[in-house]
Amino acid sequence: MAVLLDSASVADAAAAAELGFVSGITTNPTLMARATTQPLPHLESLLTVFPHGPLCYQPTSSSVSETTDEARAAWSLAPERVVIKLPATLDAVRVATILAGDGVRCALTAVYSPAQALLAHEVGCVWVIPYVDRAARLSVGGLVVVDALAAILAALQSSTRILAASLKSGPQVVDSILHGAHDITAPLDVLRGLAAHPLTESAVREFAQAGSQEAQA
């Protein structure tokens, strides 16, 4: 089980590194565009600020050859850490096959069907990444997608893992895991919120009050 930060913000990455339970970072072109106009140098900054674990980078090039070149450039910054994210298309599968020959780890993202997970398995992807909240909002059923991916990967006895993304709350995180996701990635506020519960907060206030009374005795 791995908990990853879904952000391209250097500040978020630094804060996540201090939490202790975050083991990597996922980014995408939208998140990168919010943070920088130079994705590859920015990737270097993220690798420095968050100095351990996988960091997912998604190329923005359009053709197979250009995407492959951009992916290799990103991977070369930290071959043991960078994972290349690719949308689950036929061209992306071609790129993943090429990159696998170089030892580059890849993940297929925006995965909504078991057939796409089958392709990810065949080309040796480390992750398939379903968008849980987006699937729920589009009436596809986010947890239905996770169920289907878990079933096909189990049938294949695959080493490809499910990395649930597009998670907007703690309950979505937990439900994704209960439905078969191996790992999750979420924004910083969702990760911080995993520890929040009103009864816990009430207990902390009681502990503090009891400690204060004991000190005054």
What does this structure look like?
With 217 residues, this protein is of the alpha/beta class. It has helices at residues 10-19, 29-35, 39-49, 64-75, 90-100, 114-122, 132-137, 142-155, 170-178, 188-193, 198-216, and strands spanning 3-6, 24-26, 55-57, 82-87, 106-109, 127-129, 161-164, 183-186. Strand 4 (82-87), helix 5 (90-100) and strand 5 (106-109) form a beta-alpha-beta unit. Helix 4 packs across helix 5 and helix 6 (114-122) packs across helix 8.
Which short descriptors sum up this protein?
TIM Barrel; alpha/beta; 53% helix
Summarize the structure in short.
The chain has 217 residues and is an alpha/beta fold.
- As an assembly, this protein is single chain
What's the count of strands?
Answer: 8
Using the CA coordinates, give the radius of gyration.
19 Å
Strand order of the largest sheet: 1-2-3-4-5-6-7-8
Beta fraction: 5-15%
Based on the coordinates given, report the CATH architecture.
Alpha-Beta Barrel
Shape category: globular
Please render the helix and strand layout as text:
Layout: E1 3-6, H1 10-19, E2 24-26, H2 29-35, H3 39-49, E3 55-57, H4 64-75, E4 82-87, H5 90-100, E5 106-109, H6 114-122, E6 127-129, H7 132-137, H8 142-155, E7 161-164, H9 170-178, E8 183-186, H10 188-193, H11 198-216
Parallel strand pairs: 1-2, 1-8, 2-3, 3-4, 4-5, 5-6, 6-7, 7-8
